[in-house]
């Protein structure tokens, strides 16, 4: 098997974008628990993301959700983020909290409502121009609850038209990233329910339109790593929303529910060229992001745990001896191939990663370092009355 020293260099430069909304209060439709020290402003969410980056070196950018993160001056916000040591990343649009969109936004039968939703995306592109963001991420809460309620085909056609109008407004270096989700909030049909629909819609737009794969957005039992492989093969995997789930879109800490699934996904990402640090030129177009909510646990350490889980599983996936694996696969040696795969997954890389961090001036154990830093007590004393982020 490959050993840690052989892959250590490929951990350099790993970047995982944090969602601003992970730092706001969130919950389920039953209850939002307020927690002491929660960020009250966009600036405080960015400061929290920067804290995660300081302790881990893994999270150099933060995604915004509009209008949750509405401010007057995005150039000033960009400067603020840079002063904190992070960049502003993906801009997420939001067409799911306005009464006008009850029956659809980009797919609505009423042209005025479609235009309102398109205009919202134009505003998001203006924000991107000010923040220097590359990606406009679109998740649509559109669909229907009852058979016969809507013309499924007409909605796809209108979706294409609306997305084309938005795509045409993007700058040369900007991308449209379309996220799919199999159900919720619509319960009968969803307009972008699966990777195939997202692929069909973005393929019709052009090269700078790609798919976002949120790991919580599939039916139980779905082979997500197969989808990863296929989208990479097609050159259309734009980004991940990482999280984990036991039942539906639980938005729990990535790697918490099924670490082996995370390993399998990361193996396919690496194998398919989607992990930049492992590529000869260090480049990849696949953005790693988290899309999580910390409903009952503290948010900053929740995010620290999350990025560490991704790093740890990346290290283990890098340990797979790919040449030996290919040889075993081609020899038809089923058990040897499986053993090679499982050997890497079963390797405890925690001590190696701790030493790797120390060599780079980072805390060997970022969770412990954060707990001992007094930062949590400080923000709990300083921040009274947190904001409520939206949740999914
Ligand atoms: C939808 C989703 C999407 C939203 C986020 C808050 O479930 O995953 O990415 O933008 O949640
Ligand atoms: Mn998501
Ligand atoms: Mn979601």
UniProtKB/TrEMBL annotation:
A molecular function GO annotation: L-rhamnose isomerase activity
Keywords, in A-Z order: Isomerase, Manganese, Metal-binding
Keyword presence, Manganese: yes
Keyword Cytoplasm: no
Matches recorded under InterPro entries: L-rhamnose_isomerase, Rhamnose_iso-rel, Xyl_isomerase-like_sf
EC number in record: 5.3.1.14
Cleaved signal peptide residues: none
NCBIfam families in the cross-refs: RhaI_grampos (TIGR02635)
Stated name of the protein: L-rhamnose isomerase
Protein's organism: Nocardioides deserti
Gene: rhaI
């Amino acid at each position: 098997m490959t050993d840690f020293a052989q892959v250590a260099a490929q951990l350099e430069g790993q970047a995982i974008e944090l969602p601003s909304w992970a730092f706001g209060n969130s919950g389920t439709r039953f209850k939002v628990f307020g927690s002491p020290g929660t960020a009250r402003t966009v600036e405080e969410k960015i400061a929290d993301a920067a804290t995660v980056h300081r302790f881990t070196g893994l999270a150099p950018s933060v995604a915004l959700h509009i209008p949750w993160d509405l401010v007057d001056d995005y150039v000033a916000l960009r400067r603020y983020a840079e002063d904190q040591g992070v960049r502003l990343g993906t801009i997420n649009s939001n067409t799911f909290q306005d009464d006008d969109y009850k029956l659809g936004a980009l797919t609505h039968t009423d042209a005025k409502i479609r235009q309102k939703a398109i205009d919202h995306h134009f505003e998001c592109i203006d924000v991107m121009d000010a923040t220097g963001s590359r990606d406009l991420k679109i998740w649509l809460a559109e669909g229907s609850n009852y058979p016969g309620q809507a013309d499924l085909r007409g909605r796809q056609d209108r979706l294409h038209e609306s997305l084309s109008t938005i795509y045409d407004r993007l700058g040369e270096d900007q991308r449209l990233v379309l996220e799919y989700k199999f159900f919720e909030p619509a319960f009968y049909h969803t307009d972008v329910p699966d990777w195939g629909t997202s692929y069909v819609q973005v393929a019709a737009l052009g090269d700078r339109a790609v798919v976002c794969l949120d790991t919580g957005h599939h039916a139980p039992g779905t082979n997500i790593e197969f989808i990863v492989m296929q989208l990479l093969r097609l050159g259309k995997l734009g980004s991940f929303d990482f999280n984990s789930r036991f039942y539906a879109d639980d938005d729990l800490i990535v790697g918490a529910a099924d670490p082996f699934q995370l390993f399998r996904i990361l193996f396919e990402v690496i194998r398919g060229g989607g992990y930049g640090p492992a590529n000869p030129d260090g480049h990849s177009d696949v953005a790693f992001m988290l899309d999580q909510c910390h409903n009952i646990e503290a948010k900053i350490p929740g995010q620290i745990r999350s990025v560490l889980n991704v790093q740890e599983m990346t290290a283990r996936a890098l340990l797979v001896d790919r040449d030996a694996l290919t040889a075993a696969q081609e020899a038809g040696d089923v058990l040897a191939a499986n053993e090679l795969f499982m050997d890497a997954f079963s390797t405890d890389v925690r001590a190696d990663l701790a030493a790797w961090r120390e060599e780079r001036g980072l805390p060997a154990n970022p969770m412990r370092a954060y707990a001992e830093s007094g930062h949590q007590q400080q923000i709990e004393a300083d921040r009274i009355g947190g904001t409520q982020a939206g949740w999914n």
